[in-house]
Amino acid sequence: MSFVAALHLMQAAHFWFACYYDWNYVNVPVEVYSVGLTLATGKLKFLTFWNALLQAAFFTICLLNNFIGTSEINPKSKPFIRRIRDTVLATLALPLSLFVGLSFWSIYAIDRELIFPKALDPFFPVWLNHAMHTNIMIFVLIQTYMSYHEYPSRKVGVSLFMAFMAIYLVWIHIIHAQSGVWVYPILEVLNFPLRLVFFGVAVCVGIFLYILGEKLNKMLWRNIVEKNKRKKRN
């Protein structure tokens, strides 16, 4: 097994185990954190968990690509799994991990009670917190640096990312409608106009992070990106 394949195996196992541990062993008593109690959604209430599952699936795809796909920069024929790998990183894995990680730690730095109350500490291990909110960024940035990923058009990429985020926004509103409780404490302290502003800012930040990822990919792989552009023109 090559170093890259071994790395992908470790990354995939890391996130699958984090999801497994979170789902099965992190049980916060109702009196400590009563979020969305009327829906049996488990950890699927949280964007953090959605993202961790996505990262686990993404690095599994990366692992499989080492064996049934190709990691060549510009293969003559690009296997289906390679196209999936590139699209998932560009439209979801990179922008979503940056969004989750940066938004979590930014709010945490301002007032952790708005995003991750101190009362959760006895139930949510530090290593798991970093797996879910720190390593998600580190691992996907390493992947961006190590391998070239062909981005879709910006219109397609942003649309896919925003569609994913819209689905999650609808989901947390369904949970609130059913339970009367917002998934994240910060939403409890915001009135309706401020929640609209909050969601609007979140959308803008998400689009910015998508474009940032696109620019980072272009910066790291400038010669390849320019070569591919010339090919498409011809």
Automatic annotation (TrEMBL):
One of its GO terms (cellular component) is membrane. Its main location: membrane. InterPro entries: ADTRP_AIG1. It comes from the Eukaryota. It catalyses: 9-hexadecanoyloxy-octadecanoate + H2O = 9-hydroxy-octadecanoate + hexadecanoate + H(+); 13-octadecanoyloxy-octadecanoate + H2O = 13-hydroxy-octadecanoate + octadecanoate + H(+); 13-(9Z-hexadecenoyloxy)-octadecanoate + H2O = 13-hydroxy-octadecanoate + (9Z)-hexadecenoate + H(+); 12-octadecanoyloxy-octadecanoate + H2O = 12-hydroxyoctadecanoate + octadecanoate + H(+). Coiled coil: none annotated. Pfam families: Far-17a_AIG1 (PF04750). Keywords: Membrane, Transmembrane, Transmembrane helix. The chain crosses the membrane at residues 49-68, 88-110, 130-148, 160-184, 196-213. It is found in: Endomembrane system. The keyword Membrane applies. It is a multi-pass membrane protein. Belongs to the AIG1 family. This is Androgen-dependent TFPI-regulating protein.
